[in-house]
Write a structure and sequence with these properties.
The protein has 472 residues and is of the alpha+beta class. Helix content is 34%, strand content 19%. InterPro entries: Kinase-like_dom_sf, Prot_kinase_dom, Protein_kinase_ATP_BS, Ser/Thr_kinase_AS.
Length: 472
């Protein structure tokens, strides 16, 4: 399928591919009937009744949810033997990418995102839907700060027993709840464990479990090791993590409890005694005067003596996990694209709507280079004079706000026809780029103007940069 192809279902003209993952490729498209941009998720070619039923199920489940924190599904379009899920196009960045670029988010920013994610899960669970793949790359943070949950490709409804009783492991391993890693059916409580893992990554910039290449050993760790924790300085978010990443599913907070707790935190004065939801891990908590975004330690390991008592249970668990993992790998190999999951409608790079979720691995992250930083700057100045909205996505959310939002940003750059840099000096140690720029435009307001600029960048270790400010 290419952009030169005929409109999908005679209506949706493809613009460009913006995402690719194990559950299908996603395109930005234009609905020629209603005159709006949409996201089209290609569900692949049908291989029998079962695949057709699964495509219909994803559309039906997601369409049952109409909420500001859930990506809206508009249609299930059929084109020859391929079906496309037609969704709301959200211009923004995945939480996984934001957390990686900034080595973890400030506590208040992470809390706002997790509160909205919990709201999306509250609505889904109330509708009888278990998402089963809650993770940072399935949360899109839009330009206005709204967080949306997407990708219901493996979600399960109340009446889906025949589609989920296959023994195949579903979900992303690093975020799986212990009971799901052991082969049992996912429940709303399983989603809450995954939300806790998502919170951990939002604050630290790391996945809750670094599984590496040995997924089976990683799943055994999830089942038997103590869950990761945030340090005491993380304030209320440490409480949320401790209340969601609990081994016993019945002891986890529900999505509604997380929402209520974070709402109380948002309105309570510093130092106030904070009542916790019923059946929480404690009865009260005192809010700190100034929360500290300290980096949590690595997940705790059990002492050798405790491990020795688990030898036989672990061996049995390994056997179960090998069987379950085999089904999961088989399902991934049969998916349209055997690649890491990518968000359906994320803008995360120089091109408008482009998606690229950094994947945490055990390999050492590459260091920034002056050549890459210079190339990023030139690409930014080329983009900003042709597509201000795409260029705006190359700024971190905090710098977007400091720039007066998109309206303030566009009010200047829309007058600039050309921005020519010279004397570029990139400092990989400080992650700064200094340069002189000459502006030219169709209006006298910017004709012949020039400026000396110094930009502060952030880097995710995988060759991706964003602009974080203009230091003096």
């Amino acid at each position: 399928m290419t952009v030169e192809s005929e409109p999908v279902a005679g209506r949706y003209r493809l613009i460009r591919e913006v995402g690719r993952g194990g559950m299908g490729a996603v395109w930005l498209a234009h609905d020629e009937l209603l005159g709006r941009d949409v996201a089209l998720k290609r569900l692949g070619h049908f291989e029998g009744v079962q695949s057709r039923v699964r495509a219909e199920r994803e559309a039906q489940l997601a369409a049952r949810l109409s909420h500001p924190n859930v990506v809206t599904v508009f249609d299930l379009a059929e084109d020859d033997d391929t079906r496309w899920l037609v969704m709301e196009y959200v211009e923004g960045t995945t939480l996984s990418r934001l957390a990686a670029l900034r080595d973890g988010l400030p506590l208040d920013e992470a809390a706002a995102i997790i509160r909205q994610a919990a709201e999306a899960l509250r609505v889904a669970h109330a509708a009888g839907i278990v998402h089963r793949d809650v993770k940072p790359s399935n949360l899109i943070v839009a330009l206005d700060g709204t967080t949306k949950l997407t990708d219901f490709g493996i979600a399960r409804g109340d009446a889906d027993d025949t589609l989920t009783a296959t023994g195949i492991l579903t979900g992303s391993p690093a975020y799986l709840a212990p009971e799901v890693a052991s082969g049992t059916t996912a429940t709303p409580a399983s989603d809450m464990w995954s939300l806790g893992g998502t919170l951990f990554q939002a604050v630290t910039g790391r996945t809750p479990y670094e599984l590496g290449d040995n997924v089976v050993a990683g799943l055994v760790r999830i089942v038997h090791d103590d869950p990761p924790r945030l340090p005491a300085g993380s304030g209320p978010l440490g409480t949320v993590l401790a209340a969601t990443m609990v081994k016993d599913p019945a002891s986890r907070w529900t999505a509604a409890q997380v929402c209520d707790f974070l709402d109380t935190v948002a309105t309570a004065p510093p130092g106030a005694s904070l009542p916790l939801p019923t059946d929480g891990p404690d009865s009260t908590q005192v809010l700190p005067e100034t929360p500290t975004a300290a980096r949590p330690a690595r997940p705790a390991r059990r002492a050798p003596a405790a491990r020795s008592r688990l030898v036989w249970p672990v061996m049995a668990a390994v056997l179960i996990l090998v069987l379950v993992l085999g089904g999961w790998l088989l399902s991934r190999s049969r998916s349209p694209n055997n690649e890491p999951s990518a968000t359906s409608t994320s803008t995360s790079g120089p091109a408008k709507g482009a998606t690229g979720t950094p994947q945490t691995s055990t390999t050492q992250a590459a260091k920034p280079t002056a050549e890459e930083m210079t190339s990023f700057l030139r690409g930014y100045l080329t983009t900003v004079t042709s597509d201000t909205r795409a260029a705006f996505a190359m700024l971190t959310p905090s710098f977007q706000q400091a720039s007066g939002g998109y309206a303030g940003y566009d009010s200047f750059w829309k007058h600039v026809h050309q921005a020519t840099p010279s004397g570029i000096r990139a400092d990989p140690e400080e992650l700064t780029v200094s340069y002189h720029v000459d502006y030219a435009g169709p209006k006298k307001k910017v004709s012949g103007g020039s400026d000396d600029v110094r930009l502060q960048l952030v880097y995710d270790g995988a060759g991706h940069y964003l602009i974080d400010g203009e230091p003096k």
